[in-house]
Amino acid sequence: MSEERILATYLIETAFPLSYAAEVMAGEQSTGTFVSVPGETPELKEKYGARVVSIRELESVDAPSLPGASIPKESNGKLYRRAIVVLSFPFHNIGASLSNLMAMVTGNLYELSEFSGLRLLDLELPWAFSNKYHGPQFGIEGTRKLTNVYNRPLIGTIVKPSIGLRTEDYRPMVRDLAEAGIDFIKDDELCANPVSAPLVERVKVVMEEVERVADRTGKKLMYAFNITGDIDELRRNHDIVARAGGTCVMVSINSIGLNGTEYLRRYSGLPIHGHRNQWGAMTRCPLLGMEFTAYQKLCRLAGVDHLHTNGVNSKFTESNESVIKSVKDCLTPMFNGYSVMPVLSSAQWAGSAHPTYQAIRSVDVIHLAGGGILAHPDGIEAGVASMKLGWEAAVKGVSLETYAELHPELKIAITKFSKS
């Protein structure tokens, strides 16, 4: 049998001795249960059991982070230890299987009563996963080629209102954005196949406007149509977009699952824009769920080409430090250079470029601004221009205010958005 191993890194909190808690994790997710059973021989445990690789003790706290955790009988219940634990699992327990990987490295761990906190931080996977899961088909390079945008971020926006627009309402909005020179537009995750604007009708109207402007200007924007649906709908929805000349489809990864995403990747001829809505339920509690470092690796294996990360100074609870780390995680090569383009969004405007670029030192992102473009006082064209100018200033190392003295679109954006 192969001795390749899968490494999973966790943050834990427990009132029990750390070594005992780590062994409970390893046993629960491999050969063990709460009591020894017939057949659980030393030979079986050696071949199929998970191993504790390392335990690095951190701080201790007086109160548990999560309810329902048990405490040792000899404990006074006032000391909860935290640690970074690395477990090693035999690859041959599951083979290259995303669904079974999730069962192994997360499974029932979150429910174990010995823990008042448990979070998956990272994964290291054997190369066999890359032989089965081919990862992003387009990634950063392919997305740039399709949009013909190089040496700067793709500037984009989200259709607003998120839901409720009629099919024909899309026509003037898309036309205005296309004529303004925007690179990318996406459906909101709430809008997939609503009665007000069914996907097949929406695709037809949007692509008519995209192609009309492209014929005149030579620039064809990328529109990410939300094709999220039941598994049997994915291929049909993808084909609707492809036949109309579309260049991107979007799915809600956590709605259709990693295997649903990978199923789409197998036949997709278009970049897959991965939206992570519901992510907060998986990660908002710092002692529960999953770190984005692990999550984005799973999404890359499933085959997304773009992946949402939030943006700096957003409307959400995620810290700027966490957002920047997420962007850097996406830009870090995986396996054979699997590349995924980070998508920055939420309360973004031209001024968001400076702190973003200073932190990541890369322009390989899709930077989405809803109100930051659509609500610009001088209109959509000025809103798009302001976003591009914000990035120009950031890359050149010129302050936003100095650059704005020569560019009224940027100056007005500062006045409008810097205090909002």
Describe this structure in words.
This protein is of the alpha/beta class and 420 residues long. Helix content is 40%, strand content 18%. The strands form two sheets. An eight-stranded parallel beta barrel has the order 5-6-7-8-9-11-12-13, surrounded by five helices. Strands 2-3-1-4-10 form a five-stranded mixed sheet. It is globular and about 75 Å long. The N and C termini lie far apart (60 Å). The mean pLDDT is 94.
Task: Provide a brief overview of the structure.
It is built from 17 helices and 13 strands. By secondary structure, the chain is α/β, with parallel strands linked by helices.
| Proportion of residues in extended strands | 15-25%
Q: What oligomeric assembly is this protein in? A: single chain
* Widest β-sheet, arrangement of strands: 5-6-7-8-9-11-12-13
Structural class determined from secondary elements: alpha/beta
Mean pLDDT: 94
Q: Summarize the biggest pleated sheet.
A: 8 strands, parallel, barrel
- Roughly how many Å is the radius of gyration? 24 Å
- Secondary-structure element order, N to C: EHHEEHEHHEHEHEHEHEHEHEHEHEHHHH
Helix percent band:
40-55%
User: What is the tally of beta strands?
Assistant: 13
- How far the N terminus sits from the C terminus, by CA atoms, comes to 60 Å
**What is the helix tally?**
17
Anisotropy-based shape:
globular
Give me some keywords for this one.
420 residues; alpha/beta; 5-stranded mixed β-sheet; 17 helices; globular
Reconstruct the topology from this structure.
Layout: E1 5-14, H1 18-28, H2 42-48, E2 51-61, E3 80-90, H3 98-105, E4 115-124, H4 128-132, H5 139-147, E5 154-158, H6 170-179, E6 184-186, H7 199-217, E7 222-226, H8 231-243, E8 249-252, H9 253-267, E9 272-275, H10 279-283, E10 288-290, H11 292-302, E11 306-308, H12 320-331, E12 341-344, H13 353-360, E13 366-368, H14 371-374, H15 380-396, H16 400-404, H17 408-417
